[in-house]
């Protein structure tokens, strides 16, 4: 579904290479697979997800989506992301001045869906993820685990082709991690393509393929 072809990623400051992250990688994510990405802190997990999301365009190499090469242009990538990619981060990044319903509805409003469609889709996803009790609550009235469940609902309400999650359980206790894993299992069983960066072996075990970032490459873990 997404292919990174011949990609080299460095952070540079003027002439100086501050950090080499990837060197000549080819990485292909197939539809309906669930992938964990591990690697030591600083190995490049978040950088990879930002590249897959089209948030980081500053690298050598090409980005293909469903075999089409996409231009590394900020506006075009933003449109691509809004239509096709759901993102969940460790810090949830919910809109603090909107309740849970409006947080989940937000991407659909950006996509200019009509009110009735938005209502139906938000209610469907709240039912699916068992979030009805939080409908009218604001993010500051929720626990971290509950915020994360709302963030996942917001990421998947638009039925993205791929869900990217960057350490989604990193800030959570075991019980909340379990709640998130239940949601991932449900999504995986429905064929959702998922890429999750994680330090947790428990999270990795829920995925069908496991990769590690090492020596500037992304390697499959057998
Ligand atoms: N803006 C930047 N400028 C320079 N170097 C950067 C920048 N952002 C990240 N890096 C470097 O790129 C490397 C990869 O960072 P990244 O955040 O992707 O690591 P990570 O695997 O997600 O780590 P963690 O497990 O701690 O979240 C790190 O060594 C980091 O120092
Ligand atoms: Mg990271």
Automatic annotation (TrEMBL):
The keyword Nucleotide-binding applies. This is Putative ABC transport system ATP-binding protein. It comes from Mobilisporobacter senegalensis. One of its GO terms (molecular function) is ATP binding. GO terms for cellular component: plasma membrane. Residues 2-221 form the ABC transporter domain. Keywords: ATP-binding, Nucleotide-binding. The keyword Oxidoreductase does not apply. PROSITE patterns: ABC_TRANSPORTER_1, ABC_TRANSPORTER_2. InterPro entries: AAA+_ATPase (IPR003593), ABC_transporter-like_ATP-bd (IPR003439), ABC_transporter-like_CS (IPR017871), ABC_transpr_LolD-like (IPR015854), P-loop_NTPase (IPR027417). It comes from the Bacteria.
């Amino acid at each position: 579904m997404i292919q990174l072809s011949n990609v080299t990623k460095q952070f540079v400051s003027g002439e100086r290479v501050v950090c080499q992250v990837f060197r000549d990688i080819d990485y292909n994510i197939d539809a309906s697979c669930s992938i964990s990405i591990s690697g030591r802190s600083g190995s490049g997990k978040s950088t990879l997800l930002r590249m897959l999301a089209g948030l980081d365009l500053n690298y050598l190499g090409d980005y293909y989506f469903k075999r089409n090469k996409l231009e590394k242009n900020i506006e075009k990538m933003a449109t691509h992301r809004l239509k096709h990619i759901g993102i969940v981060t460790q810090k949830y990044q919910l809109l603090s001045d909107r309740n849970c319903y409006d947080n989940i509805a937000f991407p659909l409003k950006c996509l200019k869906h009509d009110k009735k469609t938005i209502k139906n889709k938000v209610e469907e996803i709240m039912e699916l993820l068992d979030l009805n009790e939080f409908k009218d609550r604001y993010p500051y009235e929720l626990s971290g685990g509950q915020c994360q469940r709302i963030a996942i609902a917001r990421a998947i309400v638009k039925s993205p082709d791929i869900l990217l999650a960057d350490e989604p359980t990193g800030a959570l206790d075991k019980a909340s991690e379990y709640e998130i894993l239940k949601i991932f299992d449900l999504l995986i069983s429905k064929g959702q393509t998922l890429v999750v960066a994680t330090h947790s072996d428990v999270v990795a075990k829920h995925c069908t393929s496991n990769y590690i970032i090492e020596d500037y490459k992304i390697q499959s873990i057998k």
